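Changelog note: in this version the structure field was regenerated for every chain. One regenerated record is shown below for reference.
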Amino acid sequence: MESSAGYLPLREALCRLYSQRQTHVNPTQVQITSGCQHAMEHALRVVCRPGDNVAVPTPAFPGYLALLGQLNLNAVEIPMTPAGPDYESLKAVMHSGEIAALIINPVCHNPTGVTISDDYKRDIAQWANNLKIPVIEDDICATLNFSEAFPRPVISYDTDGWCMLVSSISKIVGDSERLGWCLPGRFRDAYMTQVAISQISGPYFRQKALANYLNGSRYASQLRNWRGQMKAFLNDASEYLSAELGSAIEITSPSGGYALWIRLPDYVDVTEVRRQAGEQGCDFLPGEVFSLAPRFKQYIRLVLIPPQDERYEKALKKLTGILKPLLTKAKPQPAAGSVTAAAAHQGGCQASWLVFAGGGVGVQLNILAHKNNHIAFLGADL
């Protein structure tokens, strides 16, 4: 199983890096994979069976939703807030006895950029252990955290192996390098056996190159520079968009990562904006792909990756040129009880989230079946 688990010096290097984040594992507890999505797929295959329900905070990385559909698993959507997944909603779903696993992206969440508190991470790990519910933690953007060099993952609070962690080097060295890993916890044997059957062995030379890079003196300094460039880029882009488009748009303030999550007014047709943007050679992901319900139709995700050069400046000018005429239209007043955007103050910056205007206080859980995709939804009345 040595060769199928991955290049030993690479697994040792990853153990060293995770120890800096108070996560202590040995190389036998690390499986090298062909990227983060590959690691996530195997984790779901190990802990779930077709027809199971999997909790997922939304907006969510579209790859999660596609993977759940491919594996015939049901997504139970947990609403995000500026502090992370809605605490009471997630707690209730974890204790409902109706989910087989939780997928969570606790550090630099994609697409909102939210990082949850250490106390919240501890609670999630405790729920997982007490309730024996596997938690699959996507750690791919953790190294891009702007305020904390070594943020603790949920798995660092795990005491009984019910938390798994998946990640990749792609956000540091580029998407073309499909190398990832998994810390599978108590599911190590089943996980490693499944990977061994599917790939036998991994790309030796790429794994060796990555091990040399992680063990070298340049990795830490390059990562610091990369984080600084990314933070400056996102701040500059956010300030530019706010200055050009005013208060009609709402931009989240990410704790890290490489994207801005932006809400456009209800009267702006996001599909039309994207069509015009495509004609001018720029693009973004529409918010509707981040949920299986029509919750984020007025949102867009902009990916901004250094270097901050003329290409991005031109693209942002094109985008604002498309939006300005659309934003001059009169804004209709929302009806009572309709879904609107509410501004929430986070770290001195405005962050926009979907809430139900006119709804009652408390949380009402409704798990419904989507007859085409066999997907379950969590409705929260906050």
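Spot check on this record: The longest helix spans residues 218-245. Residues 335-382 have pLDDT under 50 and may be disordered.
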